[in-house]
Design goal:
Elements lengths: L2 E7 L12 E6 H7 L3 H12 L3 E13 L5 E13 L2 E2 L5 E3 L2 E2 L3 H6 L4 H6 L5 E2 L15 E3 L2 E4 L4 E4 L5 E3 L2 H8 L3 E6 L1 H7 L38 E4 L2 H13 L12 H10 L10 H9 L4 H5 L7 H6 L1 H4 L4 E7 H4 L1 E6 L1
Parallel strand pairs: 2-3
Antiparallel strand pairs: 1-2, 1-16, 3-4, 4-5, 4-6, 7-8, 9-10, 10-11, 11-12, 13-14, 13-15
Helix pairs in contact: 7-8
Length: about 350
């Protein structure tokens, strides 16, 4: 008998109010093994859960980028939202677009040199093709109370207006049965998620918009309050540090090729690699300084650490996330197999 396997995180899991809706994470390979197509699999899961749910389908052999331009293994290829067993067929499903990494694209998006160096034959997915979605700005889907936003990295409950941040690395930890941090986003992460790179079919913006060194928020000291009080599920900091180090070792420079997020700046400073300080805009500087990121101090060449030392001390080096609780994914995730 055919089966469909998925990972299930129950509504309420996590810090504060926890996940505002249920979460279902699905490996594309398990959809293929089930004999269902993508939409059929999404509808089967929505019926099984029969409540507000965000459904994300992953290609674990593909690659994607974080909002600050770090290349990571594994990508969301379809995002969906379901409620009371149904999925809205117009506004409830959105497919990410495969992006061909051409020399012309690398010329405008130099952070893609990471893909060429580390993942030369992997497919790249970020956000959807803007020509194939109904909502012109946000990459979001909605069915009933369930909202799945920003290419499946934020979920919301349309009735309670509660929200949770789900960065891609945290979701990939769950898909790989690793550890995750449950916590409150806090001011540093609130600022950091605005330090983006400009991308075609990006996770948030459909076209290249905010370049390295800029802030997408441009909210001054208010940027630290925008997402500061919501729960999040993120990767342990040594996992984030490893990927940032790989990017730096591929020749990426924060503020020039990568976004100037506090995490990227902290790791680059600890390693003593180049930071394009002159490219960090006054608006971005105000937001960084509002959460205690002293760019002058970062320029000082103190005792530098090796990559192994940075990874080992990642919890002390990388700021952000309030009251983090480290748990194994198995403590918060139920693996469900639906008989078809």
């Amino acid at each position: 008998m055919a089966k469909l396997l998925f990972r299930f995180i129950k509504q309420g899991t996590g810090a504060k109010h926890g996940a505002p809706i249920h979460i279902a994470l699905v490996n594309k390979d398990d959809v293929v093994s089930s004999g269902l197509n993508t939409l059929e699999a999404i509808e089967v899961i929505a019926r099984h859960i029969n409540g507000p749910v965000a459904i994300n389908i992953f290609d674990m052999n593909a690659v994607t980028t974080t909002s600050d331009g770090i290349a990571v293994e594994g990508a969301i290829i379809t995002m969906a939202a379901g409620d009371i067993g149904k999925v809205h067929l117009e506004f409830g499903v959105l497919h990410m677009a495969e992006i061909e990494v051409t020399p012309e694209l690398v010329e405008t998006e130099p952070h893609l040199k990471q893909i060429i160096k580390y993942y030369p034959h992997r497919k790249l997915f970020r956000g959807p093709d803007p020509a194939k979605k109904l909502i012109p700005v946000h990459n979001a889907v909605m069915t009933g109370k369930a909202i799945n936003n920003n290419s499946a990295t934020e979920i919301m409950n349309a009735v309670t207006m509660e929200e949770m941040l789900l960065p891609i690395l945290g979701q990939l930890q769950i898909m790989n049965d690793g550890d995750v941090l449950l916590g409150i986003t806090g001011e540093v992460v609130s600022v950091g998620i605005g330090m983006t790179v400009a991308e075609k079919f990006g996770r948030v913006f459909p076209f290249p918009t905010f370049y390295p060194g800029e802030t997408a928020h441009k909210s001054g000291e208010y940027a630290k309050t925008l997402k500061a009080h919501i729960p999040c599920i993120v990767a342990p900091k040594e996992v984030l540090a490893k990927y940032i180090i790989m990017a730096l070792e591929a020749g990426m420079v924060p503020g020039l090729h990568l976004g100037c997020s506090p995490a990227v700046l902290a790791v680059a400073s600890a390693l003593g690699t180049e930071i394009a300080f002159d490219n960090i805009t006054p608006e971005a500087r105000i937001e960084l300084e509002s959460v205690g990121i002293d760019l002058t101090a970062l320029t000082a060449k103190n005792t530098l650490l090796t990559r192994e030392e940075v990874i080992a001390k990642a919890d002390q080096i990388i700021p952000g996330v309030v009251n983090p609780q480290r748990v194994a994914a198995s403590e918060i995730v139920e693996k469900i197999s639906i008989k078809l």
